[in-house]
Description:
It is found in: Cytoplasm. This protein is α/β, with parallel strands linked by helices and 353 residues long. The protein has helices at residues 16-21, 23-27, 121-134, 151-162, 181-187, 202-210, 260-266, 268-274, 291-298, 303-352; strands at residues 31-39, 42-47, 50-55, 67-71, 77-81, 87-91, 99-104, 108-114, 137-143, 169-172, 191-195, 235-238, 244-247.
Amino acid sequence: MSSASSQALTAYGWDECLENDFTRYRDAGLIPARIAAVDRGRCDAITETGPLRADTTTVEGPCTGDWAALRPGGRPAVAALLPRRTAIVRASASGESRGQVLAANVDTVAITVSMAEPVDLGRIERLLALAWESGARPVIVLTKADQVAGPAEEAALTEQVAAVAPGADLVSCSAATGAGVDIVTAVLTGTIALIGVSGAGKSTLGNALLGAEVLATGTVREQDGKGRHTTVRRELRPLPGGGVLIDTPGLRGVGLIDAAAGLQRTFADVEGLALDCRFTDCAHDSEPGCAVLAAVEAGGLPRRRLDSYRKLQRENEWIASRGDARLRAERAGRYKELSKSLRQRYKIEGKKR
C-alpha cells in the first residue's frame, strides 16, 4: 500500500484497490475510515489511528460497512462515501419505491434460520433473493442444533432447506454448545452480515464468532416463538480470526426491490426448467407446453416452490413499476418548475422592453 498508516485498516477490509481509489481524497487532506455504526446524523468510524465519532449530515445515506473519506479536525465529518462493492438493499418499510441499505461492502451474507421453530421456506427464499442481489455470497446457517430431537431430524431439516437454496452453502451449529461453530467460522469470510428474523439466534451466533459476550441476546417468547429485538442497530466489529462482523436487527418483513438477478439465482431450478417452455414469455400459469407446470405435475418441482417464485416475481415487478411512476412524477415536477421559472423570466423581460 502507498500509505503505511493504512495498514491499521487492513483488519477491517482495506486493500490495495481501496488505497488506489482513495488517492484523490488523501491528496485533498481527507483520511480513510470504515463506518461501524450510524445514528442521528453521527457515526462511529474506524480510522488509521483508531475509532472516532463523525458527522454524517454532509453525505446522503451512509450505512454500516461503508468506506468513507473523513475530514479530520476538532469535529470530524464524513466528506464522501467510496463506491460500494456490494449492498444489501430491501424495500422501504414505508412502502416507498426507494430502497433501504442494510449493510454495505459485505462479502458474505449469513442467513440465520432457527431449527427450534418450524422452518419457513418462503422466508428463506426471500432472504436468499436479497442476499444474491446484494452481490455478496449467501450462506444459510441453521442455528440451535441442540434443540432438535436428534441427527435424523437435523438431517431432514437440512435437506428441506437445501432444496430451496441451489448454489448457496449450508451449515448448521449450536452456539449454545459450540457444536459446529468451527465449521461456520471457516465458511464465513471477509465482511460478514448476519440477517434473519428475531429469535433466530443471530446475536448468540455473533458472540460465538466474536469469542466474547459483546452482543445483547434475549429469550424467545413461548407463546409465539418470536424473539425480542435485542439488536437495535447495525454495528460492525472485528473478528478474532480476521474479517469483520455486522449484526443486524431482526427482520420482520423483507420487501424486495430491483431484485431480478437475485430471484434468478434463488430460483435457478425454476429458471432452468423455463428454458424448455414453448413460449419465451411463459408465465407458468396455464400456457400450453409449459415445462415448469409439467415438472410440477410430474412431482419434480413442488407447487409451493412455483407459487413462491411467482409471488416474489410479482412483488418485484410491482415495486419496479412504483419506482418508474415516482421517477415520472419527479421529472414532471421538475418540468413544471422549469416552465414556471421561464414564464416568470419572460414576463419580467417583457416589462423591461
